[in-house]
């Protein structure tokens, strides 16, 4: 007997979203981490998909760039904005 059980599409196990990744990167190294760039709020690609890019730089010069799309883009932007408001840092608001 064949059984078709369709389930709602879920995130892969072990999946870490952009906001969680941002929090982890900000705590990853002992050296100071700063958000140096964040895309403008409500930035949308030509195809209509929301997009957010956040660049993190460590004191040692290491950089990480996070890219998120759709709902995750809005969540990442919100998280990065909250982090920036808690900690004074130099930030470029344009891409």
Would you mind describing this structure in some detail?
A three-stranded antiparallel sheet has the order 1-2-3, covered by helices on one side. The chain starts with 17 loop residues before the first helix and ends in a 9-residue tail after the last helix. It has one domain (18-86): 2-Layer Sandwich (Double Stranded RNA Binding Domain). Helices cover 28% and strands 22% of the residues. It is of the alpha+beta class and 95 residues long. The model is unreliable at 1-12 (pLDDT under 50). The protein is built from two helices and three strands; from the N terminus they run H-E-E-E-H.
Note the main attributes of this structure.
Double Stranded RNA Binding Domain, globular, 3 strands, 95 residues, single chain
Compact overview of the structure:
The relative contact order is 0.23.
Give the SSE layout.
Layout: H1 18-28, E1 33-38, E2 51-58, E3 63-69, H2 71-86
Antiparallel strand pairs: 1-2, 2-3
* Count of helix runs: 2
Q: Beta fraction of the residues?
A: 15-25%
The level 1 CATH classification is Alpha Beta
The major beta sheet can be summarized as: 3 strands, antiparallel
